[in-house]
Amino acid sequence: MPIRLPSYSILSAGLILIALTGCGKSGNTVNAAPPAPTVSVMDVEPQTVPIYGEYAAQTFARDAVEIRGQVDGYIRKRLFQTGADVKTGDVLYVLDLRPYEADVAKAQADVAQSAANAEYASKQVALLQAEADLAQAEANQVKAQQDVDRLTPLVKADAASQQDLDAALAQLNANKANVNARKANVEQNRLSTRTQIAFSEAQMKSNQALLSTARLNLEYATIVAPIAGRIGDSLVQPGGLVTKNSAQPLTTLTPLDPIWVRFKVSEADYLTFLNHTGTDDLRHSPLQLLLADGSTFPQEGHVQDASNQVDPKTGTLELQATFANPKHQLLPGQFGRVRVRIRERRDVLLVPQRAITELQGAQSVLTVGPDNKAQGRPVVLGDRSGANWIVEQGLKPGDRVILDGLMTLGPGAPVNPQPAKN
Questions:
Q1: At which of 219, 246, 268 does a domain end?
Q2: Is residue 27 in some structural domain?
Q3: Which of 130, 341, 346, 384 is the most exposed place for a label (fewest CB within 10 A)?
Q4: Three-state secondary structure call for residue 308
Q5: Ranges 24-28, 202-206, 381-385: which has the least confidence
């Protein structure tokens, strides 16, 4: 805050009192006046400065994960310490694996059995036998037909008996009937074999799916970290039962790098920022984070998300930014201030805050006149730029502003101006 000074009348009375006490009474002579105090001064010159806005901010964990069991079982091991940093894939809990190992072994046996059945069906043993029987029946039919064809002319020539021909015809008919029966048997076996092959293949796929499920459940019985972050307290201890439908998670895992920060800007600042950048993409502007102890976080941040509307109750727009947090210095829930460059001022005059005094709501500075005497200048201040204020009215380029000794100086006081050290 600007320094408040007593009124100039009180200060002038003090200077008169000092002058009177310095007068000697003998010889009506006055002691020599003390040397003018040395003061640091700076020449104000036009310059271009960035204007920053500062906004209350709070860190938060946007992608925090609840760790839950995906299968039922009792916890055999817990392999982390509360508050530890874990990496993706680190083992957190190990459940009782024995039931799931048994399920995997049974599923493997079922797959092997179904594979054997499919192999047997693919060999088509019954169909091959039926086809062989059909071939034998067809051969017998051919022989019977040959016997009939041989006896028929012999019977006509009375070289063979009719009885032998009748017996041959009967045998031919029997063989024809047998061939038809064997053909039907072949078709039946062919259909049965196709059905058995399809069933065996389907059964093998089903058993393979059961094996995959059993292996997946066995994998789920070892609970690992899905992301990297800092882990919280375990809500279920070793020996406790984990159920996949439990409403309570086992623990929580919070990613800390990057850390998310939310803050709200006024509608006016938002529009000013857009007019300055000429773009509606806020992600290109770097951010600084001022922490609660007054320090500046060393990493630079960038806006990632913005609300799609201005809050009509507060006239503000919420922005969400990320800051790299490799050392995990920041934790969710911390408060601070976000500083963002919203515009730029050209050809402005700057004075340090320590050079400004305030009296009854009016600001002023002391300058050095041509006669090396202090001169009071009322000023109108504008935006702040770091530890400096922009002076809108009251100063002109080349003015020499006094930076120190303001408590003991007043307008008209002689000074010994010296350039301020950077």
A1: 219
A2: no
A3: 346
A4: coil
A5: 24-28
Please give the residue that has the higher pLDDT: either 189 or 347: 347
- Whether 167 is in a domain gets the answer yes
Token pair of 117 as six digits: 């059945």
**Domain final position from 317, 344, 371:** 344
Q: What is the pLDDT of residue 11?
A: 36
- Among 194, 251, 221, CA closest to 102: 221
Among 55-64, 106-115, 139-148, the range scoring the smallest mean pLDDT is 139-148
- Give the residue among 44, 78, 117 at the shortest CA–CA distance from 356: 44
Please give the average per-residue pLDDT across 231-242, as a whole number: 94
141 CB-near residues (< 8 Å, 6+ apart): 172, 175, 176, 178, 179
Report the distance separating Cα 309 and Cα 301, nearest Å.
23
For the chain, how many structural domains are there in total? 4
CATH number of the domain that 395 lies in? 2.40.420.20
pLDDT band for 232, please (50, 70, 90 cuts).
very high
> Which residues form the domain of 80?
65-95+222-254
Q: What is the pLDDT of residues 148-161, one digit of tens each?
A: 888 888 888 887 88
Q: How far apart are CA 150 and CA 185, in angstroms?
A: 31
CB under 8 Å to 54, separation ≥6 — which residues? 290, 337, 338, 339
pLDDT value of position 35: 85
Q: Are residues 352 and 320 in the same domain?
A: no
The whole-angstrom separation of Cα 256 and Cα 332 is 8
Q: Region 367-394: what's the mean pLDDT?
A: 90
How high is the pLDDT of residue 91? 97
pLDDT in tens, 317-338: 999 999 999 999 999 999 999 9
Which of helix, strand or coil describes residue 137? helix
- The answer to the question of residue 285 being in a domain is yes
Contacts of 177 (CB under 8 A, 6+ apart): none
On whether the CB atoms of residues 337 and 321 are closer than 8 A, the answer is no
Show Cβ contacts of residue 321 under 8 Å, excluding neighbours closer than 6 positions: 260, 261, 262, 263, 287, 301, 302, 303, 304, 338
What is d(CA 40, CA 352) in angstroms, rounded to the nearest whole number?
12
Alpha helices in 224-356 (DSSP H): 267-277
Same domain, 215 and 108: yes
Rg (CA), the chain: 50
User: Cβ(133)–Cβ(182) under 8 Å?
Assistant: yes
3-class SS at 116?
helix
Looking at the structure, tell me whether residues 227 and 328 fall in a common domain.
no
